[in-house]
Amino acid sequence: MDRTAAGWVNGFLGVLIFSGSLPATRVAVADFAPVFLTASRAAIAGAIALLLLAALGERRPERGDLMSLAIVSLGVVVGFPLLTAIALQHITSAHSIVFIGLLPLATAIFGVVRGGERPRPAFWAFSLLGSALVVGFAVSQGITAAPAGDLLMVAAIVVCGLGYAEGAKLSRRLGGWQVISWALVLSLPVMLVIAFATRPDTLAGVGGPAWLGLAYVSLFSMLIGFVFWYRGLAQGGIAAVGQLQLLQPFFGLALAGLLLHEEVNPAMIGVTVAIVFCVAGARKFAR
Fold first, then answer.
1. Per-residue pLDDT reduced to its tens digit, 149-181
2. What one-character DSSP code corresponds to residue 278?
3. Which residues form the EamA domain (predicted)?
């Protein structure tokens, strides 16, 4: 398998894992406060990452890598999880998942700014069309009914796109799992303090689904998914492989409907199908 094909395979596996993140977060915030959930998931993943780095004897990043790792931490370790956790107190996971359609555009833009990539003009046309479909869906579903949730999701997409592009650029030198591991370790001291300070007074009322949600976002969303995702972006190109995120609503909507019994209406499915056609066009002109 050549490097580009391997990038698409790894990217697809990353997207598949990330698809469960918003439904799992929706379940977890039913019993955990958003700030505690964000800090605890990062602390759990950070502790595991620290053990892995120590056990495998990985060399420490160079001083010049620290700023990039800080951007990754702020984007995908803190920013996206916290903003989405708060947003999901206002909107359903099915509604929030459609905003993931904006991620490819955000990732591609930061791929140009931070990664030096230069997709062709037709690529941007397809990416903008996909993003417009997502925004149009949010408005048609009554964005004024929960403006806070929608705005928080948009902010989450921006910081996540930056974290994806920055991590992919760094993965070309350090490796995919090493980048997310060092980013988690960098944020570990702060996340431990925040998790301890915001811990629930009692865990008696926390149900099994919330614990499972916390476990999923800690192990898969925060660590394992990024092993495949950053490797895929580094191998196949940030802008190109980043378009795979447009498949994420398919998987996420299915999970929200099957596991959470949330309504998945025809409009959601229609938008998702349309943006998948957009990703096919964008992929053709990514380079």
1. 888 988 999 999 999 999 988 988 888 889 999
2. H
3. 10-130, 149-278
Residues recorded for the chain = 287
- State how far the alpha carbon of 128 is from the alpha carbons of 97, 270, 271, 275, in Å: 18, 17, 14, 10
Phi and psi at residue 165, to the nearest 5°: -65, -40
- Cβ contact 16:224 at 8 Å: no
Task: Determine the average pLDDT of the residues in 109-122.
Answer: 80
Picking from 109, 110, 158, 105, the residue whose alpha carbon sits closest to that of residue 279 is: 105
Other C-beta atoms within 10 Å of 202: how many?
7
Spatial separation of the C-alpha atoms in residues 161 and 108, rounded to whole Å: 8
The number of folded domains in the chain is 1
Residue 122: domain span: 3-284
Sequence-ordered alpha helix ranges (H) in 116-175:
121-140, 147-174
Please state, for a pLDDT cut of 90, what percent of the chain lies above it: 35
Secondary structure (H, E, C), 237-259: CHHHHHHHHHHHHHHHHHHHHHH
C-alpha 34/C-alpha 29 separation (Å) is 6
Query: How far is the C-alpha of 174 from the C-alpha of 179, rounded, in Å?
Result: 6
- In the prediction, which pLDDT does 17 show? 92
Q: Give the separation between CA 70 and CA 192, rounded to whole angstroms.
A: 17
Q: Say how many C-beta atoms besides its own lie within 10 A of residue 104's C-beta.
A: 32
- The beta-strand segments (E) located in 28-143 are none
User: By the 8 A CB rule, do 133 and 87 touch?
Assistant: no
Higher local confidence (pLDDT), 115 or 165: 165
Largest distance between two CA atoms of the chain = 56
**What pLDDT shows up at residue 48?**
96
15/23 Cα distance (integer angstroms): 14
Q: Residue 42: which pLDDT band, with cuts at 50, 70 and 90?
A: very high
